[in-house]
Design brief:
heterodimer, A: 109 residues, mainly beta
């Protein structure tokens, strides 16, 4: 399976943008980049996914490098409720999601 | 819509006991999944069901069995619980295997 590398933890101030990086240098042409997050004591929650182009939705934006070897999840204004573990996952076709350890985001008021 | 529901929320078992974790979804999804999450770790896939009537092993299937009872329900059974199965168990569903997954709130299982 193609693997992703994320920082173990990051910190952000409330109401500021947050850029969560993910490296995936062995990504294949059919791999989609998925992001999920897991709030404390809850199940994971889908955030966003993309293939080649940048993507926006109500929760976040996903910026994908031109060579697709890295991507960045952007939270435009962090709130305390965004404190969670964020998982960057490569998924191709019918392969299942494979969760790594993710990035633990702390938001400071 | 309740989304994905799991019962029970908490369970304590003694080694060797058996139990079934229940999962149901009301989103008319075709695919359902069972994961476990150990402390400080990411989720690991135990079993999945791509569609009603089919089940397949995931990364860590040993010690577990599953039943896709109907389109809504997917149960996970521990025949003889072991302390190594102490974990939080999450059920998830998706419209299809290429689609985003929706997760339940989890079942916290302790085996003593």
């Amino acid at each position: 399976d193609a693997k992703t590398t994320q920082p173990n933890s990051m910190e952000s101030n409330e109401e500021e943008p947050v850029h969560l990086p993910c490296n995936h240098s062995t990504i294949s042409g059919t791999d989609y980049i998925h992001w999920y997050r897991q709030l404390p004591s809850q199940g994971p929650e889908y955030v966003i996914h993309g293939l080649t182009s940048n993507v926006n939705n109500r929760m976040a934006s996903l910026a994908i490098a031109e060579d697709r070897k890295s991507s960045t999840l952007i939270l435009h204004r962090a709130t305390l409720r965004d404190a969670a573990v964020y998982y960057c996952i490569l998924k191709s076709g019918n392969t299942p999601l494979v969760f790594g350890k993710g990035t633990r985001l702390s938001v400071i008021a | 819509n309740a989304g994905v529901t799991q019962t029970p929320k908490f369970q304590v078992l003694k080694t060797g006991q058996s139990m079934t974790l229940q999962c149901a979804q009301d989103m008319n999804h075709n695919s359902m999944y069972w994961y476990r999450q150990d402390p400080g770790m990411g989720l690991r896939l135990i079993y999945y069901s791509a569609s009603e009537g089919t089940t397949d092993k995931g990364e860590v299937p040993n010690g577990y069995n599953v039943s896709r009872l109907n389109k809504r329900e997917f149960s996970l059974r521990l025949e003889s619980a072991a302390p190594s199965q102490t974990s939080v168990y999450f059920c998830a569903s998706s419209f299809g295997r290429n689609y985003e997954q929706y997760f339940g709130p989890g079942t916290r299982l302790t085996v003593t």
